C-alpha cells in the first residue's frame, strides 16, 4: 500500500483555489487511487482486526509512546551543572498556540523546589501602609482573572548572536511557552497593602535558594501583572513555580518569579544581580543597556525546520510557525522562500492577541528545490522584526539577550533543513 | 504563625469597591499583621533555607505530587467492564477554560487503541467522484485550522435525570473538556474526493473494534468539522484518538469519532446502533427523539461544590464555574445563592466564544450561612438554561442524554456542599 501512496500521476480535480488548489490536487495524486472498493475494504478489514480490543485510559494521561521524542531538551554544553539548568520547548513538533505544561520550557537558577500550599506564604512589605502575609487560601479569596500570555526567556535565541547556529527551532527559539493563566491581579494585592506615595518600584523574589530577585516599575506592577495559581486550567507544575508564580505579560521571563515569596515596595530599583551582572545587554562600546524588559516582536518558522524536515516530494507543503510581541498583538507575518528577495503574506490562524503567541501558515506548492526560509513579524505598534545583522549593527556582538533577529532555515531539495545565516 | 493567620480583627482599609472591597478587607484581616519586619523576615529566612537546593525538571513534566487527586475518575458502578469505559474531568479542581489533555474526560466503547502514524489510513468513499485513501503524511499537506471547542458527552449529567445526585461536579458534569484543536477542515477533504449531487450525509467510523459509526448531515460536515491531529498544541493522547479524531463543534461527543478511519458519503443516514438504540432520547410516551445532536446551553458551579468545599469562615468568597452552548457563544450567566429566589449577574472572565467553554466568577461576601447555589446560562440565540423539572415536564423520566438542567449545590454553614434538588 505504501508504495501505492507515492505520488503517481497528476491530480484529477482542482476543487481548492490558489496555492492550496495545486496543493490539494497533488495530494489527491499522492493519495491512493481506489481501483474499485475491494482492495480498500480489504485493507480496512485487516487493519481493524489488527487493532483488536484496546485498553483503558490512566487517571492522568501521558503522551502515546510514539511521541516520546516530543519533550523538553537541554543543550548539553550550555550549563555548568544540573542545578543551574534550563530546557527548551519542542516547538518544532507542536501546532496551534497553547503550550502544554508538560513540555513547556523551564529555567531555574537553584533548582525547582517542592513547596506545599500549606507552607506557602506571600509577604508584601516595604513602602506600604501595612505589611501583609498571605496564605495560599487567602489568595484564593480575591477576584481572579484568566488570560493567555507568552513567556519568553530574554536569552531565547541568544546563542545565535555569535552564530552558534544550533540545529533546530527547539534550541534556537524554544525558550518560550504560551499558557492560559488563572490568578489574582498584583494590583489587587498591592492595593490591599496600600502603596505609599514614595513607592515607585516593587522588588519581587522567589522562595528558591536563588530568590531570583527582580525590580519592576510600579506602573507595570499596577497594570497587567498576575499572581498566577494555574496554567492551562491546572495547578502549576513544580518547575513552573507551584503553587504561585508572577506573570509579567510581554516582559522577559526572568521577571516571572516562581515560588513567589515576597513583594517589597521600594523608592528605587534594587539593582540586584539578576538585573545588573545578568539580563543587561553590553553594547560594542562596552556600555550596557539595562531595564530592557519588553520582548520585541519576533517570529520563527517551526516546520519545516532542522528537526522537522519535509518528508515528501514536490507539491503541496504547509509552512507554519509562531509570532509574538511583548508590545501588543501581532498584526502580520511575512514569509520568504528565497532568503528575503520575495515576501509573501502568511495566513494567521486567528487574529493576533496582545502578548500571546500567534500561529501562522503559508500553504505553498513546493517545486522541490532548495529554499532559504525566513519569517518576519509585525506588531500593532508598527514595529517590524529586524535581520540579525541589523541588530548586530546597532548592538554589536557582546549581547546575549533580546535577539529577535530573523531566522533562516536552508531547506534542501531532499527536505532536510539547516540553520544558516545569509548576508 | 499559622494561628496568627486566623482572621483576627476587621479590615483596616477598603481599597476595592463593591463585594470585592469587603472581600479584600476580610482577607487583609485573615492575613498576618506584621509587628515590625523581624518576625516576618525570620520566618522568610527559615523557610528559604528549609527549601534548600531544588531539582531539575523532567523531559515531560508531570503534576506535582501534592496534586495527585486532580485526575480523571470513573464511577465504579457505571460500566459493566473496563473495556467499555469512561472517566470524568476533575472540573471541580480546575480554573480557566482550557482542559489539559492529561485530565480531559474520555469515553471509549472498545478500549483505546495504539495506532501508529505509519499504519494510519483515512478512506473517503461512497457517493464521491473518486474514492481516496490518505496517509497521515497526506493529511499534513492540506491547509490547517486552529480553534478552541468544547466536547461534551450527550450523557453528561444524564444520571441526574432520575436524581442520582452524584456527589461532585466531576461526576455530574465532568464528561466535558475544552481544547485548542489543530487539523484539516473536513470540507477540504470532501471537496478533494468530490461529493456527488445525491450525497446528503456522511457516515464516519473509527479504527477501534467498536467503530462507533455515526451519520452526520452533509451541511454540518461541510461547515465547521475538523479532522484534528493535535489538541492544546501536542499530538492527541492515545485515548483521545491518536493520530486523528473528528471534531464536530457544538455537537454531542459521541460523534467526535476517534482513530478516524473512514468517511462514507451516503444519500440517507445509516441509522447505526450509536444513533438508534443509543444516543436517542425516549420520551414519556415511549417515542424517542433522534438526531438530537446539538448540546444545549448549560452551566455548573465548579467551586464551591461537594469536592471543593469552602475552607474558611465568613467573608470574601470566590464562586466560579463553567458555561457553554453548542449553538454559539455564551452571552451571560446568572448565579443564585438561595435556590432561585434572587439571581445575580456573574462576571465572565472573557467574552463568550462560540462552542467553547466560558469561565464565570461571582465574588461575594459570604455571611457564613447555608446557600443553595445554582447557575443559569444564556446563549447568543436567546436560549436560557432550564431547571431539571422543566426538562422532565417536557421529556419525562426515561431520558439519559441531553440533561442541561440547572444544578443545585447545598453549601452548608461548615462549608461542605451536597448535590440536592429543590422543587
Automatic annotation (TrEMBL), chains A, B:
UniProt KW keywords: Metal-binding, Molybdenum, Oxidoreductase
Domain Moybdenum cofactor oxidoreductase dimerisation: 289-407
Domain Oxidoreductase molybdopterin-binding as annotated: residue spans: 115-269
InterPro entries: Ig_E-set, MoCF_OxRdtse_dimer, Mopterin_OxRdtase_euk, OxRdtase_Mopterin-bd_dom, OxRdtase_Mopterin-bd_sf, Sulfite_DH_SoxC, TAT_signal
Presence of the UniProt keyword Oxidoreductase in the record: yes
Obligatory cofactor(s): Mo-molybdopterin
GO BP term, pick one: sulfur compound metabolic process
GO MF annotation terms: heme binding; molybdenum ion binding; molybdopterin cofactor binding; sulfite oxidase activity
PROSITE patterns hit by this protein: TAT
Gene3D superfamilies referenced in this protein's UniProt entry, alphabetically: 2.60.40.650, Oxidoreductase, molybdopterin-binding domain
PANTHER family linked: SULFITE OXIDASE, MITOCHONDRIAL, SULFITE REDUCTASE
Protein name, UniProt field: Sulfur dehydrogenase subunit SoxC
Classification lineage: Bacteria, Pseudomonadati, Pseudomonadota, Alphaproteobacteria, Rhodobacterales
